[in-house]
Write a structure and sequence with these properties.
This protein has 224 residues and is an alpha/beta fold. It contains 10 helices and 7 strands. It has a 5-stranded parallel β-sheet, sandwiched between helices. A two-stranded antiparallel ribbon has the order 2-3. Helix 5 packs across helix 10 (215-223). The radius of gyration is 17 Å and the shape is globular.
């Protein structure tokens, strides 16, 4: 049985230099005409979930997520060159993706809170597009609950490839870990975001790494 390796993006693969957050705030002000009042915690959450909180905090009732996301995607597209300029690819990422990409027993994709277009812009900025079957990924417009993104991703992969997979979820937050556990997936925590190794382990991660710089050890954990 092959492994379906589902990667989180932000603070797991890369740091985007706050480009998407700035685009989010600009799009919100343009669409609603309201000044930005409070920034929610973005880490590990889906864009639908964050959008609901932002609308509620600002008392917005006459704007749909779809309308907001359309403008948000336009903002990100206009500033997408800044991801590589202000952001960075995290240690070991390219080597791990390349090594897994040579294996016949692995399919790599994305499970991210980002909307699909923004996810695509982020990985393209660092030349990672070819590493993933993004078609079967789980994205922030699929559902507010991150565990559902993992389930949708697995369903899409099984439908496309006509086979069952051993699921692996790799992320930097407790949300990634809990989403993996809810789907009986191997949960690999990477402490390259704001969550410590101890916190990831406490959340139930089956394996925890400081980062992906030890390529051989990372591959062993993912494929064991």
């Amino acid at each position: 049985m092959r492994r379906l390796v589902m990667w989180d993006i932000d603070h797991t693969l890369l740091r985007g230099g706050d480009v998407a957050a700035r685009a989010w705030m600009a799009a919100f002000t343009e669409v609603t005409g309201l000044a930005w009042q409070a920034t929610p915690a973005f880490a590990g959450r889906t864009d639908l979930d964050i959008c609901a909180e932002v609308f509620a905090v600002h008392g917005v009732t006459g704007c749909t997520p779809e309308r907001f996301f359309d403008r948000y995607v336009e903002q990100v597209h206009a500033s997408r060159h800044l991801f590589a300029e202000r952001g960075t690819l995290l240690p070991g990422v390219r080597a791990v993706l390349d090594a897994l990409g040579t294996r016949d027993d692995v399919v790599q994709t994305l499970v991210t809170g980002n909307v699909p277009q923004v996810a695509a812009a982020k990985i393209a900025a660092f030349g990672l597009t070819g590493a993933f079957d993004a078609e079967v990924g789980g994205y922030g417009t699929d559902d507010s609950v991150r565990a559902t993104l993992v389930r949708r991703c697995r369903e899409r992969a099984e439908a496309k490839y006509g086979e069952s997979f051993r699921p692996v979820v790799i992320g930097d937050t407790a949300h990634d870990v809990s989403a993996a556990l809810a789907n009986d997936a191997l949960a690999v925590g990477v402490a390259t975001g704001g969550t410590t190794m101890a916190e990831l382990a406490h959340a139930g991660a089956h394996a925890v790494l400081a980062d992906l710089s030890d390529v051989a050890a990372t591959i062993d954990i993912i494929t064991a």
